[in-house]
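S1.2 Input.
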Amino acid sequence: MRVSITINAVQCLLEIEPGDILLDVLRREGYVEVKGDCHTGDCGACTVLLDGKPVASCLMLAAKADGHAVTTVRGIGDQRHPHALQKAFVHNGAIQCGYCIPGAITSAKALLDENPEPTREDIRLAMDGNYCRCTGYEQQIEAVLEAARELREGGFR
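S1.3 Output.
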């Protein structure tokens, strides 16, 4: 079957099987920044934004994304044009192995899009499903707070 999914602002027509999982389709299409670890929706490594809302791509049928917009961390920013969150994660030492970071940043982006002035508790709740086994969470919370400040002040995009 053929689906039309806008991925990182690019319209894509994709051939899929009815039972294909969004995570697998994204990776097959070259979006390797989306990680798969648990395949049960528990770790958050596969988090992408579906129409701006965080979803576990390892639990979603690709067919359900037909007609929708999917944003990966690459669609948020890249090395040449990093988003404030990406800059703040680096600045605050919130990245070690990097495996969980794409999912953490997409979850944080969804939060800041809805709440530009989050509290520490807001951040904890929004990122609750994103497990990090290397860095820990304090640096990530500090990074989100810094990015929120920068975005409000117009320092970063």
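S1.4 Remarks. The helical segments are 22-28, 73-76, 84-91, 101-114, 120-126, 138-153.
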